[in-house]
């Protein structure tokens, strides 16, 4: 079932967060050692300063009183609005890294001037639609670190370091880099061809029902969500709860990446992410009421995404990389 606007059974209050980068280019918000609560979101929209002011205000209000460490990145193609909060802070990616794996698989097929093989199709679809870990491992190992690293360079995702072959969920990334990877699916200067972009967006628009929480919350009717989430508890910094997505329709596309850790539970992290998303959707759509509410707590499973065990130490970052804000 496509992930388009649909009513949810229950709605909850509102509260968002931020941290970011933009199209293919970068933005303010390099490594930020300060906690999210110490520094507020900053939004800019050169042609619409009132919108930027409203977004900043709404996001600050949404973050008020929330526990945890949060980063956000936002870019809207229609208004050129951007928002950032601790965009360079590094987090263990959990299942978000499956978007990189998908893009690298699509890029490799293009470079060899061929369609995806039947084997690649059998793995890439469940990897995105149901977050299948066995499928992700097969593609990750087949692509190899050199090709995955080359794909990151093509995207300009310079602060992402790959996790080990056995625990790819320990890949360390930032909200800014996740926004750059999303730009490969919608940006004008994408390194992927039109067919690959459309296919990737379609898969991200068909994630299964119990994984449709996150940045889709508050999305109004008339838009379509293409998203991927990651949710993983670790021995330090509690639950990582991340959500990234592209929203298309009506001649526009906007991208959101929200990453968080130090969450006391998965449900708490999901609620924080969704409150951020709801504030963004409302403001970017002229106050239109969202067709999607916040995910009811009873529908959040609390089971890890399985991308890495909780006890495995995080691998070191790349040589010379800043450790500021690292888990």
CATH class: Alpha Beta
Q: Which spans have pLDDT < 50 for at least 5 consecutive residues? A: 1-38, 319-327
Number of helices: 7
Q: Encode the helix/strand succession as letters.
A: EHEEEHHHEHHEEEH
* Category by helix and strand content: alpha+beta
What is the correct CATH architecture?
3-Layer(aba) Sandwich
Instruction: Report helical residue fraction.
Output: 25-40%
- Provide the residue-averaged pLDDT: 86
* Beta-strand residue fraction: 15-25%
Trace the largest sheet across and list its strands.
1-3-2-8-7-6
Mass-distribution shape: globular
Task: Give an account of the 3D structure.
The structure is a single chain. The chain is of the alpha+beta class and 327 residues long. The protein has a single domain, classed as DD-peptidase/beta-lactamase superfamily (Beta-lactamase), CATH 3.40.710.10. The protein contains seven helices and eight strands, in the order βαβββαααβααβββα. A six-stranded antiparallel β-sheet has the order 1-3-2-8-7-6, with helices on both faces. Strand 2 and strand 3 form a beta hairpin. Helix 2 packs antiparallel against helix 3. The radius of gyration is 18 Å and the shape is globular. The N and C termini lie far apart (36 Å).
